[in-house]
Amino acid sequence: MITAAISSVRVGRANGRRIAEGSAHGVRFPRTPVLGFHVMLAGEGWLVTEDAEPVAVRPGDVVFTAAGAAHGISRTPCTLAELPEVVMADVPPPPVPVDFEFLCGTYPLEHGKVPGFLRHLPSVLAFTPDYERHPELRVVVEMLRADYTTPGPGTDASRAALIDLMIVHILRHLQEQTSPSDWPLTTEPGIADALREIHGRPERQWSVQQLSDVAGMSRTAFTRRFTAAVGTPPMTYLIGWRLSSAARLLRQSDAPLAAIARKVGYSTEFAFAAAFRRRYSVAPGRYRAADTAPAHP
Fold first, then answer.
1. Cα(146)–Cα(6) distance, rounded to whole angstroms?
2. Looking at residue 295, what DSSP letter applies?
3. When you count CB atoms within 10 A of the terminal residue's CB, does the N or C end of the chain come out lower?
4. Contact 275, 246 (CB under 8 A)
5. Whether residue 260 has pLDDT greater than 90
């Protein structure tokens, strides 16, 4: 389900920066509808959130948010209100000692909603990865550092791929640290089978009855358990998956709209375009054109 979690947020454009801060106090990141992370490169301080005690952070530590909750990094324990808001300027680090230096990576959350796969996670958390056990993570961090420091041709593609990799490693770490019952969807009998069918064959004209048959449950029991596990009813989830899959195809390929419509389960381009406009407030063609425009992070 890590693959599904990544896919569910990959619709928007990945953004990343290297941030160096010389503030005597620290910085505050306001509430923003993104899934993202910071990797501490230099400086020791405290992760400050709205509803928990400050947590110490050191170089190599990762701060992760699945819902863009407000948080900050401070020199000493304090409240969020005491910290100045970070200036997200895409500028090189100053040639002087700084209090904090981060790598940041984010994906916008579609309509500001947290994917069902991530709703069980804390709004903000910090942890120290096991770099000895997972040396590849250190490689990803160094590649991100280089990409942010000296961007070049193909930066948009490489940055998105590296942010994907970083989030995959973060989610793997969190999965290892929790029991199976704390990481829903993969072990829920029947529900995981239905999700695999939806993800693998979105083009099929699924009904609730067919999905409940896959799950080996009555229609009523399946609908109740699916909604409890995923956060939305089966058909709502199916439509969302189809359209987010279509958005990725629009972003990643030059396939005709009619072909994309068929691939995600719409019999006509018109029906697909109408559903897409309802969800994204823009026609598929304009969505593709906007996403292929040069980015200015």
1. 23
2. P
3. C
4. no
5. yes
Q: Please tell me whether residue 28 adopts helix, strand or coil conformation.
A: strand
Q: Predicted confidence band at 193 (pLDDT cuts at 50, 70, 90)?
A: confident
The 3-state DSSP class for residue 194 equals: helix
For residue 209, count CB atoms less than 10 angstroms from its CB and return exposed for 0-12, middle for 13-18, buried for 19 or more. exposed
- Strands, DSSP E only, in 6-61? 15-21, 26-29, 34-42, 45-49, 55-57
Contacts 24+ apart (CB under 8 A), 243-250: 243/275, 243/276, 243/279, 243/280, 244/7, 244/8, 244/11, 244/110, 245/7, 245/202, 246/272, 246/276, 246/284, 247/11, 247/276, 247/280, 247/287, 248/7, 248/10, 248/11, 250/284, 250/287, 250/288, 250/291
- Answer for the pair 83, 151: CB distance below 8 angstroms, yes or no: no
Q: Which strand (E) or helix (H) includes residue 246?
A: helix 234-252
Categorize the per-residue pLDDT at 111 as very low, low, confident or very high, splitting at 50, 70 and 90. Answer: low
Mapped onto helix, strand or coil, the DSSP state of residue 160 is helix
Q: Which strands make up the sheet holding 34-42, listed edge to edge?
A: 15-21, 100-108, 34-42, 62-65, 125-127
Task: Report the alpha-carbon distance of residue 147 to residue 104 in Å, rounded.
Answer: 12
| Token pair recorded at residue 85 | 């808001």
| C-alpha 57, offset from chain centre | 22
Dihedral sign from CA coordinates of 68, 82, 74, 149:
positive
Q: 155 is written with which tokens?
A: 């930066």
Is the model's pTM score more than 0.70?
Answer: no
- Encoded tokens for 178: 């929790």
Closest CA to 167 of 34, 52, 70, 295: 34
